[in-house]
Specification:
The complex is a heterodimer of chains A (727) and B (47).
Chain A: E1 40-45, H1 51-59, E2 76-81, E3 87-92, H2 104-113, E4 125-131, H3 135-146, E5 152-157, H4 159-164, E6 168-169, H5 171-178, E7 182-184, H6 193-201, H7 219-231, H8 236-246, H9 263-279, H10 283-299, E8 303-304, H11 313-321, H12 326-344, H13 347-367, H14 372-389, H15 392-408, H16 410-424, H17 432-437, H18 442-447, H19 455-464, H20 473-484, H21 492-519, E9 530-533, H22 541-575, H23 586-592, H24 594-606, H25 613-621, H26 628-640, H27 649-655, H28 667-679, H29 684-694, H30 698-724
Chain B: E1 9-13, E2 18-22, E3 25-29, H1 31-35
Antiparallel strand pairs in B: 1-2, 2-3
Classes of the chains: A mainly alpha (727), B mainly beta (47).
Chain lengths: 727, 47
Amino acid sequence: MGSDASQPNTGGDPRASLPAHFSGNSPVRRRPSAAPRAPVYAMVGNPNCGKTTLFNALTGLRQKVGNYPGVTVEKKMGEAYSQHGKPMWVIDLPGAYSLAARSPDEAVTRDVLLGRRTDTPQPDRIICVLDATNLERNLYLAHQILDLGRPVIVVLNMMDLARRAGVAIDAAKLEEQLGVPVITCEAVHNRGVVELRIAMSRAELPLARHRWDVPAPIAPAVAELQAGLVDEGRPPLVARAEALLLLTDFDTVRVAGSTPLGNRTASVLEAWRRRWSAEGTDWSAALIKSRYEAINVLCQGVVDRPAPKGLSLSDRIDALLVHSVWGWVVFGVIMAAMFLSIFTLAEYPMGLIEGLVADGAGLIKETMPPGDLRDLLTEGVIGGAGGVVVFLPQILILFLFVGLLESTGYMARAAFLMDRPMSRVGLHGRSFIPLLGSYACAIPGIMATRTIENAKDRLATILVAPLMSCSARLPVYLLMIATLLPGREVPAMTKAGLMLLMYALGTGGAFGFAWLFKRTFLRGDNPLMILELPPYQPPRLKEILRQMLERGWLFLRNAGTIILAISIVLWFLTTYPKHPDPQATADAQIAHSFAGQAGHILEPVIKPLGFDWRIGIGLITSFAAREVFVSSMGVIFGVESADEDTAPIREAMLKATWPDGAPLFTPLVCLTLMIYYVFAMQCMSTIAVVRRETHSWRWPLFQVAYMTGTAWLVCLLFYQAGRALGF
Amino acid sequence: MGFGEAALVTKISGSTTSLCLVNGMRIALNHRAAMSIVVEHLPAQAR
């Protein structure tokens, strides 16, 4: 059985089988030199064992890595080259503890390995990455993979951490016992990658000689199911592995693209389960126990673990960071430091960018004759997109902190800490990692919910994730805080406190709605939480810097494409049709324009919140993306100040008034606007991702309705209460 | 998650939520997960 590099068993060029999304958002590197029938390698292993770091080292790609389980939730494919320059495809699969999938991300791994996916070639060879510090646990999955009868290369990663922990591993003996190549590796330091590449380049790879006997009472069921699956077209060893999986309790998670179980197999399975239930046989436990006994035998003489010596440094750090009181103090200090840094560290570079933007507009005004083209450049392009670019330093600082939290291993501790309050609203700590990730952007946060086993918990997390204040809200908050608290005399701590309040409001809203959903249409038991806490590691500054630059570039790209395009369209809509009176004020011109007419239609709905039609235009345009609100304000208020020097948006906004001369952006209105953006669903990309993850339009539409409805209601109550109190 | 049969489990901290060391791996268990684990005291000579 099995195949080799020159004769892959997928029957064709694997690139022909690439799913459409591989050529879209997924960063596949296409090189014209790739020969047909390049072998396909699958990279599998437990979560957080360093698969993606190794994948990046082999392919040269830059997939996101982090020191917590569940970073990779979707398969990624990249091209690598053998020692002889021949192309090979590598699939990076989500981490799994076992082939018996318990969550959608694990189901992707199981289905690709078993060839159940119609959109992905079945791998010819498997690279099984094991965390050397926890070999016994990691060998469970490896043991199941060896059963598949495919050529396997075992990679013992994190050998440096194992050595530091005093764990000695005899790799040669493990190789001898398994009968497959075993490579020792430190992917983070790029050690062992060449040896792996050499092993991958071998034309022939030996098949595992390790054998494991199925417990006798279960063997007849395995044989019968295997025969049925072979009849359905599975190769014999895959059929055996699948039969074993079907006999566990957990092989019920189905994901898009996987083929369903045949009727005959389903009825055989049901018959055996009924029989064992009647006899009182715990077949699932018997299978797991038997496999562990085999692993224990395998590890004898291979792993030498030192006797425990009480609490280690990591244990003592954990005792503080997850303490019921001190843990929260540390969490609060970290969050406060993050928001304070956003205001203090970013001040100088922000001023620099503001100056550059103003100089650019001034130069155009000096060199170009007055007219629509000049106005388009100064008010549409620079006033719109330039107004958003100013917030780049804050975005970079936010991602610096997120990167530090992810890289050091604190992220998982924060999830642990949050389990208690989250369990009160019906969620568990595992939901917190997607929610915490949503502080950066709701899209990866929603995708990270694939690690959640229970479908109702997963849906509840998806529904509330966009309430966590993402980085796109940051420019809106910053603009409103700058308008609300103008001048340098206001302490940065006050501004940071206000910002923290908005983040707390979003988090509180997310918890509140999760509580509501879990007690109504998503009712279910309080979930079990078992979360692996990764070892503490010094931050990988190079990786953090890379992620910061990537996010910064993404922000600039958005500013230069979507936001720029919307700004130009908005400029057109605020400029045309021209007012019949050429001497009309700028305010009268906008009121007469297409955008002004649309804003006036919306005004009766938003006036009770203290918003006028100009703010209404911003609310409409920022439905595409929240930060568009800032550029919209730049265009709208830039038009008003057309004859004046270009000023920062906040200064123009402070001059804005109602028709009766009362200021528009009062402190109460600024706060109300911030609250609106905390709750409102203003992101088309998130809506599209929720549609994809829930396979239905029902949930994204529900999300738009409940979030925007809440935003309107809360703002109404807040603004009217503020007015009643005399603000 | 793959706990070995002869796993050494050390409770490090926690009351409602527990943090344990299993086979050299730190795992966090919430109260319900912890309650579903059968714990037996080993006789002193077996430790």
